[in-house]
Amino acid sequence: MPEKRKITLKDIARELNISVSTASRALKEHPDIADETIRIVKAYAKEHHYVPNVLAVNFRKNRTYNIGLIVPELVHHFFSTVISGAIDTAKKHGYNVLVSQSNDILDDEITACRTMLASSVDGLLISISNETFEGEHIKEFLAEGKPVIQFDKITDELETPKVTVDDFEGAYQAVKHLIGQGYSKIAHIRGRKEVKNANERAEGYHKALEDHGLEYSSDWVKVCNMINEEEGYQFARELMESPNPPDAIFCITDLVALGVLKYLKEAGFRVPDQVGVMGFSNWKLAEIVNPTLSSIDQHGYEMGVNAAKMLIHNINNPEKREEENLMLKTNLIIRESSNRKKFQN
Amino acid sequence: MPEKRKITLKDIARELNISVSTASRALKEHPDIADETIRIVKAYAKEHHYVPNVLAVNFRKNRTYNIGLIVPELVHHFFSTVISGAIDTAKKHGYNVLVSQSNDILDDEITACRTMLASSVDGLLISISNETFEGEHIKEFLAEGKPVIQFDKITDELETPKVTVDDFEGAYQAVKHLIGQGYSKIAHIRGRKEVKNANERAEGYHKALEDHGLEYSSDWVKVCNMINEEEGYQFARELMESPNPPDAIFCITDLVALGVLKYLKEAGFRVPDQVGVMGFSNWKLAEIVNPTLSSIDQHGYEMGVNAAKMLIHNINNPEKREEENLMLKTNLIIRESSNRKKFQN
DNA sequence: CTGTTAGCGCTTTCAC
DNA sequence: GTGAAAGCGCTAACAG
After folding, report:
1. What pLDDT score does B117 carry?
2. How far apart are alpha carbons B223 and B231 in whole angstroms?
3. How far, in Å, is the CA of B20 from the C1' of nucleotide C16?
4. Is beta strand A66-71 parallel, antiparallel or unpaired with respect to B326-328?
5. Contact between B119 and A96 using a beta-carbon 8 Å cutoff
6. pLDDT digits (tens, 9 = 90+) for B31-42
7. What is the model's pTM?
8. DSSP 3-state assignment of B306?
9. From A120, A288, A290, residue closest to B55, measured CB to CB
10. What is the rounded distance in angstroms from the CA atom of residue B150 to the CA atom of residue B88?
11. Which amino acid residue lies closest to nucleotide C4, measuring CA to C1'?
């Protein structure tokens, strides 16, 4: 393995009997420099595999071309989709992405932010943890003039552009669809009240019931804490064993719906005939379960793409930064679990 | 938002009437420096929120405390598990992780490597694409003295430590289990012949048949190209419609097994009574499908942890680098799809 | 114990 | 067109 010492501008300058500054400018095709000089320098650089020392350039320019990306969980279909979109986009613009996860723990998120700030990313993409409200650690970025974009799980406490999915509308469409399928006693297993998405979805649910003049009962709304399969199972049992059981359950997320389906199957309820089930997020699992699960697609990849685009725009244009929020449309995916009337939508 | 200009060592030195080097050393509690000086400097630094300029430090030390991580696919349960382990470990050691994906396309992998090399990561963790054989782009890291660790999908063309799972043994155990369940005509839907893992698994399959004196037929071995659900479906059909159909199918991965299950269900075969099915990788979906899928757990998180540990060790100890490979044990997970005798193992 | 000095590799005025 | 020189912020060898 030939330990090739890297050559520097100085080496080029010395060998070619020019100054370092001329060499530097020649490589950038600076208009001042004679074409001939440019040619010669470039040729020499190429021949000797000159590669600028990025560390030096970054230092000089006070830029790293790295952006930070923090999500609650990495092993998560939706978030990995977002990350994928963000990385692909960043790459296209010459940026690398530093990825970290908070595990939905505030302290971990703070640590992750600090490390990223310390390692001098040029900007930050973040989907906050369930425990984040003030977000002082995120304000540190803004204080240093580094742009931040929030996505998916956001807080209005922070004045940054946000990329979200239209949770309200998604939930509304989901419930409207259930109503269209003839369900009339629709329950909702929702997320924590401190979490914005959860509230939006709950409101969409409400509005849909209201607009269609359907019965609403607070007994039919269950609040998840962990948002996992077990909770779905438990709440489904509570709902179905109650004196006034619902005939459809709209879940905050597919994982919860999975638990619901499991309970319904065990308890002998027929899905979708007796009980309709809707998830949210359209994970891979929705296609795999039996019966397949109707859900709302959140276009994670596009979310990643758009968030990264906005961030990079704001990094590159400190003067006219994009301040607008972006709300992506959702997509209703009808599968077996809610398709009682058996026709394709 | 107070635009706080960052203070530098120079500022501290000037204000405290000491030299920059003294300030620098005091902050590091250099033994040469008087306790009193250290106290004063630290106090001042703290009061004025001194933060060292990482870009300058990196430049000086020629280190970034960033490591690169390249996988074929990000939206992939196994790989995201590995990434999660690697990131958590890196964080613990003060490193950040730059993540990128190759989409199993050689050119993308080369680009990803180049960008990472250019952005001066201190080392690289990589699981190569299906199209990578020589890996010249990876050798560029080694040529610059930057350590590389390969994991999961590896090639022996590159002289780097490797962290893998014992594919041979995993496959052997899987097939042995099938045999123990009374299956005797066991087919294998395998991966490409150029891919090492695929070969290891195929050999484990062979060896298990051989050791138990079971019939082997090349008709029972199908070679996947895309390794997806559709191929599983198609090959299952081919196998079951052939003159001498198998009574069990061992699949290169859970996704393929999913297609197999789907075909078997449609064609009316009872699983596991008539036909046993084994996957590999133990994705989330294995617990979700119906019947649940027996599989081999590859301990992705541990793989990430170990690979990151090795890399960081090798970055920090250029003199005595770890050269050994690490092969993690797999775990047989028995679920419904192969559990014909209905007892727990 | 502390200061002086040199320098990492590059960019960018400012001269000529 | 080109060069000289300064400096980004920090570290470390050397000197005292």
Report:
1. 86
2. 9
3. 35
4. unpaired
5. yes
6. 989 999 999 999
7. 0.90
8. helix
9. A120
10. 18
11. B19
Provide the positions of strand C that have an atom within 7 A of a protein CB: 1-13
Chain B residue closest to A144 (CA)? B3
Task: State the fold for domain A63-164+300-327.
Answer: Rossmann fold (3.40.50)
Per-residue tens of pLDDT for chain A, all 345 residues: 334 568 999 999 999 999 999 999 999 999 989 999 999 999 999 999 898 999 999 999 999 999 999 999 999 999 999 999 999 999 999 899 999 999 999 999 999 998 888 877 999 999 999 898 889 999 999 988 899 999 999 999 999 999 999 999 999 999 999 999 999 999 999 999 988 999 999 999 999 999 999 988 999 999 999 999 999 999 999 999 999 999 999 999 999 999 999 999 999 999 999 999 999 999 988 998 889 999 999 999 999 999 999 999 999 988 888 889 999 999 999 999 999 987 544
| Nucleotide with C1' nearest the B31 CA | C1
Token pair belonging to A260 = 């619901």
Question: Looking at the complex, does the CB of residue A290 fall below 8 Å from at least one CB of chain B?
Answer: yes
Q: Where are the domains of chain A?
A: 9-52, 63-164+300-327, 167-298+332-344
CA angle B87, B88, B94 (to 5 degrees): 85
Q: How far is the CA of A10 from the C1' of D4 (A)?
A: 14
CA atoms of B181 and A210, how far apart (whole Å)? 56
Hits for CB < 7 Å against strand C across A residues 44-103: 52-53, 56-57, 59-61
B317/A contact by beta carbon, under 8 A: no
Q: Please tell me the CATH superfamily of domain A167-298+332-344, with its number.
A: Response regulator (3.40.50.2300)
Other C-beta atoms within 10 Å of B336: how many? 16
Q: Which residue has the tokens 């330990």?
A: A3
**A84 min Cα distance to partner chain B (Å):** 6
Q: Where are the beta strands (DSSP E) in A66-217?
A: 66-71, 96-101, 123-126, 148-151, 162-165, 186-190
Pairing state between β A295-297 and A331-333:
antiparallel
State how far residue A206 is from chain B, nearest Cα, in angstroms: 31
Domains A63-164+300-327 and A167-298+332-344 share a fold: yes
